[in-house]
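ok so i was messing around last nite and threw this chain in just to see what happens. nothing serious, just curious
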Amino acid sequence: MITLNDVKNNPQVINFVKQTEEAMAVLSYTNHGFRHTNLVAERAGQIAKSIGLSGRDVELSMIAGFCHDMGNFMTRTFHHYYAALLFHQIFQHEFAPEEISVVMQAIANHDKEEMNFSHTISAVLVLADKSDVDRSRVTEKDINKIRTDIHDKVNYATTESGLKADKTKKRITLTLRIDTNFCPIMEYFEIFTERMVFCRTAAQFLGYDFGLVINKFRLL
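result:
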């Protein structure tokens, strides 16, 4: 069976993620390349394992996490569709039909335009992806430009970020540390409220509550 390691070492996948990283940097977007894909894959695997998914579903969650953004080099608007189709093009003869369809669906569903859940892996991917807020995602080097772009500003102000599932309490919690001297917490909600709603919807599909803790204060 194809593993995450196989996917990470596939030359086409490597190139698509690399091209995405370069394309997003030109647009001054936050990182959507290897830093983001590796973290989302790892986080998806942790959540999938914590909530008790099978070993294979944990692996498929990680694979979807690594490949979910690789269509951005073609177009930002429809990147989720292209990433799913690229995944099929690369791996159509290497995955069982039921596995490749689940991964394709998860990749296509991670964008807000298509966020409908019918499989646990799709929900796990949304949680792993939408919870990635962190200073290390900022590609802009000019601190003055960072201060004037609210997305860069909020990400830059976030110095710690973690996502954890508690199977006993049936709660998935995103914990952040935000430098309020650089960015007021209110500005986080100005741009990420929608993301938190997506995370809550995904958690509910899995049978969990979603929690948000910022600077040790529980807000959700």
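not much to say yet. The chain has one domain: 4-218.
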